[in-house]
Specification:
By secondary structure, this protein is mostly helical. The chain has helices at about 10-15, 30-35, 85-100, 100-105. About 0% of the residues are buried.
Amino acid sequence: MNAVPYKGTPQVQADILNGNLQVVVDNVTTWTPLAESGRLRMLTVTSKNRLINLPNIPTMQELGFKNFEATTFSGITVPKGTPKEIIHKLNTDFAAVIASEEFKAFIKGYVYSIST
């Protein structure tokens, strides 16, 4: 496999759907709607465990790639020099949202990893 840099997901999706690419490794949430519509087939996931929303898709480990795990991280950033009071308020507000039942219900549709 060769890594091919793209400026964005829409270009990659067009190339895979048009047959210009044979395989793509990318964030699963971006590709799930295309897989669900039958326009492409997901072969595997790179997480340690199967995904809640895609329970029939095997992991790389299940396919024989011992100890394979590749996950992504998302973070929240602010510009350098942001006052500590603002950072504290953001931390407090984010913590309150994350702890809320409404957020937990919302995020359930986007949390894919099954913990063991």
